[in-house]
Design goal:
The structure holds two protein chains of two kinds.
Chain A: H1 2-35, H2 40-55, H3 64-69, H4 76-90, H5 94-107, H6 113-126, H7 129-143, H8 148-164, H9 166-171, H10 174-181, H11 187-203, H12 214-224, H13 229-240, H14 247-257, H15 266-279, H16 286-303, H17 308-324, H18 344-357, H19 363-373, H20 379-395, H21 397-411, H22 416-432, H23 440-446, H24 454-466, H25 474-483, H26 491-507, H27 509-526, H28 530-545, H29 547-554, H30 570-578, H31 583-587, H32 591-594, H33 608-614, H34 622-625, E1 651-652
Helix pairs in contact in A: 1-2, 2-4, 4-6, 5-7, 6-7, 6-8, 7-8, 8-10, 8-11, 10-11, 11-13, 12-13, 13-15, 14-15, 15-16, 17-18, 18-20, 19-20, 19-21, 20-21, 20-22, 21-22, 22-24, 24-26, 25-27, 26-27, 26-28, 26-29, 27-28, 28-29
Chain B: E1 9-10, H1 17-36, E2 46-49, E3 53-60, E4 63-69, H2 75-93, H3 98-103, H4 105-115, E5 116-117, E6 120-121, H5 126-132, H6 138-147, E7 177-190, E8 196-210, E9 216-221, E10 227-232, H7 238-244, E11 246-249, E12 254-263, E13 274-283, E14 286-295, E15 303-311, E16 316-323, E17 327-331, E18 337-345, E19 352-360, E20 391-399, E21 408-414, E22 421-436
Parallel strand pairs in B: 7-22
Antiparallel strand pairs in B: 2-3, 3-4, 5-6, 7-8, 8-12, 9-11, 9-21, 10-12, 13-14, 14-19, 15-18, 15-20, 16-19, 17-18, 20-22
Classes of the chains: A mainly alpha, B alpha+beta.
């Protein structure tokens, strides 16, 4: 019965596939007639449909010659679409593309500058060696074109030629032409020339294509104030990578780029900030430096009222800037206050910066703020807020008392996760200020029943052992912990119980004897963890060998705790400041660690066929992505990841 | 990508096999990543993808725009570019959805290839793009399909390479009009005790220009020092601003944003158009929040479109709302929330009141269904005192009021002799106005 149904289904599926195939064939056939239609509009519609089919992954390569016939047209839209078709099939059928070359060459001399530019751009995009020979003539003409739009497109095209063959680009003088374009009258051409040169420099194995010379700097400075925002970014980046030859030049560059801080595009602003920070080391005049940093503040603050994605990037970068200039934004602490509806990634960054920029004067404002955060719903955020309170207390002694008060207030809410975090935070502060705030320990004991997480329990037990004098019924409390020793699972709690019991015994030998014996006995006899057992043995032997020595060891003066530092190492910081605004500064890891320059990009041709099969699952860093399926063999072969319930790519250019 | 995290469309500018191959791996990996986070707002905008690539994404109107970065570039540049792409697409095809993208993909393709050339952003200015790619019009399409003959485009797409790339030559309008809108937003946090925790005013000067020829405009403000940080449209000549604090510019045609600014809060009176006071009380399982709202002083202007949004904890049930003025809605899509709206509120009006009452299911967010956990059944867990509600969001609009006291003094047109009709409007809105309690 079942088998019959299954054969039926299988038969149906075969039929369906056949019908679909016939339909597709029919469609291609129909398109072919349409493409050859005598009516212009029908041909136009047919081209549109061909492209639509191509982008959803149907094979329309069979229509190549028919599509090509339509290339001679004045209609810009059709031309663009056919060029798209060519780009798509150039890789697989380079010999067919040669058929189109004539039209390209003709188009490159068209009277309409748009068409000239389009032809040059597309020829570059084809990325086929065979086209190169035909490209040289039109390209050198377009580089000298009267129309700046054509010139700027041609300049970009040189970079593409360079990628295919550096030799051809050099021999035909294209690279020189781009260098000359730096003094073009049109700013668009200048900025494109800068990007093309930077790109070619990256591609060349020795990185010797271009170096910004000081005579070009002034030209770029003029261009930067006039060209479009994207051009400005390219020029600013090139300037930021340039090393000024003397103090005067550095001052001049900084002065001239200052107005860029008023740009609406956040990236322009951030690149300018990067440039200013980089040039700072060359400027010695103090008044200029203060003026620069003053000018930096308002735009950075404004970035924080943009979309949350921009805020995130800005915050990550501000975090780095602040490690260089800790006092830069101390007046603006309020703009970093978290809003209830900020995305969680923005809140974390803001919290980190708040603690960083907080000065002794505004600790109280910040403490009130942190207390509010601790009442929010998100558990992780609350955890970070409470930890921020303890960080604050450890950094400023004057704030410690108020921090303690705030924490005590929070523990009274009895909210489960808040209590856990508060106990840990209080223990941190107690550890940092030995002998102070001991009166908080009895308060903590009142909330002992709420303490459930191992790290909180360990902290509480530590505090009990350290300040046993403060707690009235300490014996009972510790005994109850010792009795429940085996119910605990976490080794940190076990160790804390042993430590506190020993401490209590050393302080009050009469009262604590029974307790400590019981604790050590349970630990050595029943505990499975070797660390816990060993610790218990050490204490036992120490105490039986020499009680005074035990006393000296257990109650020894502990070295003061260093404030936990969230700072980056100076070397990394320097590297990140020079890459400010870039991906590495957001991820806070240097560029070399997340991007390995592809060797094939540096001039060695890509062995495309062989590479496909060789992709090893280990090549990609799956651990970071948290995507279990990415590494399990589905990727070998390089292509086969879209199945298995993954959405299919609908349209791809 | 659509909001269900499935890719719709992708485009490569660098014709490099290794990148194409990588994208086949990364697109699904990124999809998986987005599905692994609890909600989209938990996804870091910058994410390290497999194969040493970095994904930068933004979310606008149900569509996720993702850019893939393989070398060191400023992510802000990518975000701004994606923002520009999203704006351009919206302008070209209107409502952006999976369906409209599929319908208009030839236009989008043309746009994308004009906006970016071999991995470098070229332009995102829609007035420039309009010159390069014709805006698809329904009429055009229908006419073409019906008659089979296309309307010959009136103006051939052309590039503008003059010194004012944002404005084409030879624009003609029968009525010459220029409108200025000063839109300001107040971002504020009001603390538990009613004190203002943070207060921030930012604004935009938005213009609509329908002027013929090449007008040169000069806009002077009565109180320019109130603006702390100003970012201008590229058409503004910055040296004039630096020397005289006047805005000189040749406007683009149509609507554009002339400047956005941030008001200096130092010598600004921190006046809120609305004063809201909240009190909460808890009786066993019954929570009550009471709000008292009063209009503030804004030059005697009434406050319009007042709204108060209160997100309630996920365990809240049996929500009751009382108010004499305005309308309220209780929604329960993801977690319950109450929204209260009032059309207008004048300074002379008496204080208006909203009371929200609700029960909280014991047992935390994982609490069982309503039927089983009645408030009477005492739970063994410790009573959670904090109800989980700690904020309300307030919205308002005050037409004719400028919180930063920035005013347009005069607007002059030089170089053109025709008469123009000018209009200036002010409005102050709420940005993120949050009340803590």
């Amino acid at each position: 019965m079942n088998a019959a149904i299954q054969t039926n289904i299988a038969r149906l599926q075969i039929m369906k596939a056949k019908v679909l195939a016939a339909l597709r064939k029919g469609e291609n056939y129909e398109l072919k007639t349409e493409l050859n239609s005598e009516y212009r509009e029908r041909r136009k519609e047919a081209v549109r449909r061909v492209i639509a089919n191509m982008t959803v992954g149907k094979d329309v390569s069979g229509l190549f010659t028919d599509v090509l016939k339509n290339m001679h047209t004045d209609d810009l839209e059709i031309k663009k679409l056919i060029y798209l078709y060519l780009i798509n099939y150039a890789k697989t059928q380079p010999d067919l593309v040669i058929l189109a070359i004539n039209t390209f060459v003709k188009d490159a001399e068209d009277s309409n500058p748009l068409i000239r530019a389009l032809a040059i751009r597309t020829m570059g995009c084809l990325h086929v060696q065979e086209v190169l020979d035909y490209l040289c003539d039109p390209l050198s003409k377009c580089l000298k074109d009267a129309n700046p739009y054509v010139r700027k497109t041609a300049v970009m095209c040189v970079a593409k030629v360079f990628d295919l063959s550096a030799k051809i680009a050099e021999d035909n003088g294209f690279v020189d032409a781009v260098r000359a374009a730096l003094s073009d009258s049109n700013t668009m051409v200048v900025s494109n020339a800068v990007s093309a040169l930077v790109e070619m420099n990256d591609m060349a194995p020795q990185h010797n294509v271009w170096k910004l010379e000081s005579q070009s700097v002034s030209k770029l400075l003029t261009a930067v104030n006039e060209c479009v925002e994207w051009g400005q970014i390219a020029i600013l980046e090139a300037l930021a990578d340039y090393t000024p030859k003397d103090e005067k030049e550095a001052e001049n560059v900084c002065e001239r780029v200052l107005p860029r801080l008023q740009h609406a595009n956040g990236s322009v602003v951030l690149t300018t900030v990067r440039l200013l920070l980089k040039y700072e080391s060359f400027v010695r005049r103090a008044d200029l430096l203060t003026r620069f940093s003053k000018k930096m503040v308002p735009p950075l603050v404004t970035l924080l009222s943009s979309e949350s994605e921009i805020q995130y990037v800005a915050l990550r970068n501000i975090n780095i800037i602040l490690q260089r200039h800790p006092r830069l934004l101390s007046k603006e602490i309020r703009v970093f206050f978290c809003r209830y509806n900020d995305p969680i990634y923005v809140k974390y960054e803001k919290l980190d910066i708040l603690v960083r920029i907080c000065s002794e004067r505004n600790t109280e404002t910040l403490l009130n703020e942190l207390k509010e955060y601790a009442k929010e719903v998100d558990v992780d955020f609350v955890h970070r807020a409470i930890m921020a309170i303890s960080r604050l207390a450890i950094r400023y002694e004057s704030a410690a008392k108020k921090s303690m008060a705030a924490l005590t207030e929070l523990v009274e809410t009895k909210v489960d996760h808040v209590v856990q975090d508060v106990v840990v935070a209080v223990a941190e502060i107690l550890r940092h200020y030995p002998g102070k705030f001991e009166d908080v320990v009895p308060t903590l004991c009142e909330y002992m029943d709420y303490v459930s997480e191992p790290r909180a329990k360990a902290s509480l037990i530590w505090a009990l052992g350290e300040y046993s004098e403060q707690v009235k019924n300490i014996n009972n409390v510790l005994t109850s912990f010792v009795e429940s020793f085996m119910e605990e699972e976490d080794a940190t709690v076990h160790l804390a119980i042993i430590n506190s019991a020993v401490k209590y015994f050393v302080k009050q030998p009469q009262k604590g004897q029974a307790l400590v014996l019981k604790a050590l006995k349970t630990a050595t006899e029943k505990c499975a963890n070797p660390d816990v057992r060993d610790r218990a043995y050490i204490y036992w032997r120490l105490m039986s060998a020499d009680p005074n020595a035990a006393r000296a060891v257990v109650l020894a003066q502990k070295p003061p705790m260093e404030p936990e530092s969230a700072d980056l190492s100076p070397a990394l910081l320097n590297e990140l400041v020079s890459d400010l605004g870039c991906v590495s500064s957001v991820l806070q890891i240097p560029e070399r660690l997340f991007i390995y320059k592809n060797t094939e990009k540096a001039g060695i041709p890509l062995k495309s066929g062989g590479m496909m099969g060789q992709v090893q699952p280990g090549d990609s860093d799956d651990g970071v992505s948290g995507s279990p399926a990415a590494g399990d063999g589905g990727m070998v072969g390089g292509m086969d990841t879209t199945n298995g319930g993954e959405p299919e790519l609908l349209i791809s250019f | 990508m659509s909001v269900n995290r499935a890719p719709i469309i992708q485009k490569h500018w660098c014709d490099d096999l290794s990148i194409k191959r990588a994208s086949l791996v990364i697109a699904p990996a990124f999809t998986r990543y987005l599905r692994s986070v609890p909600s989209l707002e938990h996804a870091d905008p910058i994410w390290t993808a497999p194969q040493d690539r970095v994904c930068v994404h933004i979310q606008r109107n149900e569509i996720i725009y993702m850019g893939l970065v393989s070398t060191e570039v400023p992510p802000l540049e990518v975000i701004e570019l994606l923002e520009g792409v999203s704006q351009a697409i919206t302008e070209y095809i209107g409502q952006v959805s999976e369906l409209t993208i599929k319908e208009n993909f030839t236009t989008i393709y043309q746009l994308l290839s004009e906006m970016v050339d071999s991995g470098k952003a070229v332009t995102t200015d829609t007035s420039v793009l309009r010159g390069l790619v014709p805006v698809p019009s329904l009429v055009n399409r229908v006419f073409e399909n019906v008659s089979g003959i296309g309307i010959v485009p009136e103006r051939r797409p052309d590039v503008n390479t003059s010194s004012t790339p944002w404005r084409a030559q030879g624009i003609r309008h029968t009525n010459n009009e220029f409108f200025v809108d000063v839109v300001e937003r107040i971002d504020a946090i009001v603390g538990t005790n009613g004190a203002i925790v943070s207060y921030d005013v930012s604004g935009d000067i938005e213009c609509k220009s329908w002027l013929s020829g090449m007008p040169d405009m000069l806009l002077s403000l009565s109180n320019p020092q109130a603006m702390d940080d100003v970012a201008f449209h590229p058409c503004v000549r910055l040296n004039k601003w630096d020397s005289e604090k006047k805005i000189a510019f040749i406007p683009p045609d149509g609507p554009f944003k002339l400047a956005s600014f941030h008001a200096s809060t130092e010598n600004l009176e921190k006046a809120l158009p609305l004063y809201v006071h909240a009190t909460t009380s808890v009786k066993e399982m019954d929570n009550t929040i009471e709000f008292n709202v009063e209009a503030g002083q804004c030059n005697g202007r009434p406050v319009e479109n007042v709204s108060l949004r209160v997100p309630l904890p996920a365990q809240a049930y049996n929500i009751r709302v009382q108010c004499k003025v305005g309308a309220h809605t209780v929604s329960n899509t993801r977690s319950p929330q109450v929204e209260w709206t009032i059309k207008t509120l004048k300074l002379t009006d008496r204080t208006v009141r909203l009371v929200i009452q609700y029960y909280v299911r014991p047992g935390g967010p994982a609490g069982a269904g309503t039927g089983r956990s009645s408030p009477a059944s005492s739970s063994p867990l410790p009573m959670v005192k904090s109800s989980g509600v700690s904020a309300a969001f307030i919205g308002f609009e005050v037409p004719g009021f400028s919180a930063s006291s920035v005013k347009v003094d005069s607007l002059k047109v030089l170089r053109e002799s025709y008469k123009i009709y000018k209009g200036v409007r002010y409005v102050t809105k709420s940005g993120t106005f949050q009340l803590r309690f």
